[in-house]
Design brief:
Blueprint lengths: L1 H17 L3 H9 L8 E4 L1 H9 L2 H32 L7 H54 L3 E4 L10 H7 L13 H10 L3
Parallel strand pairs: 1-2
């Protein structure tokens, strides 16, 4: 008999613990439910692509690439000159081996410089993308606050070509459907254009 009473008390405790907190339910029912009007969308990758394709940005990238290419071409010419000089030495002589060593050092410097310049360009692009994304997010939140939107989602079509790591993270934010939601993209673009850093 005592065993049955103990079992019954345990079952009653489990049932009471598993019931939802009714005060939470009543307060949730009193809150106004946000409708589609409180949600807006912004096409972040489109904004990044458009800003990255701007004339000013293209000139800066072209100038950096030209400088890097000129530096690498100069190193390549020096290596070629040293290789031509190598042909004047007798194979196996001390002068030949010294010249070969000099060429190998120059080739190593060329390869390491090329890798450094490639990484530098990539890091600069990634930094620009991150800073621009931060500006987009700030401007979007200001617009959303001013217009009374409770939520702004990033919505971008697949296939916008951005291969940077940070852009890949941004691309993970997906919205499958946004019918009827106001689109803040053009307003964000206008504010970014007006607030040139």
């Amino acid at each position: 008999m005592k065993m049955r009473i103990a079992l019954l008390i345990c079952l009653a405790g489990i049932v009471v613990c598993s019931l939802p907190d009714l005060s939470v339910l009543s307060s949730a029912a009193n809150r106004p439910s946000p409708g589609p009007q409180t949600i807006a969308v912004v096409r972040v990758l489109e904004i990044l692509r458009d800003l990255g394709a701007g004339a000013e940005r293209r000139r800066a990238i072209l100038a950096e690439r030209t400088g890097a290419n000129n530096e690498l071409e100069q190193l390549a010419r020096q290596i070629n000159e040293q290789e031509q000089a190598l042909k004047t030495f007798t194979i196996g002589s001390n002068d030949y081996l010294k010249q070969l060593d000099r060429i190998m050092e120059m080739q190593g410097r060329y390869e390491s410089r090329k890798e450094f310049l490639d990484r530098q360009m990539s890091l600069k692009q990634q930094l620009w993308t991150q800073q621009t994304y931060d500006r987009i997010a700030r401007i979007t939140s200001e617009l959303a606050s001013a217009r009374g939107f409770g939520l702004v989602l990033a919505v971008d079509p697949n296939g916008l070509p951005l291969s940077e790591t940070f852009a890949g993270v941004i691309a993970m934010q997906k919205v499958v459907y946004s019918g009827g939601c106001p689109d803040l993209t053009d307003e964000v673009k206008a504010k970014l254009a007006a607030a040139k850093p």
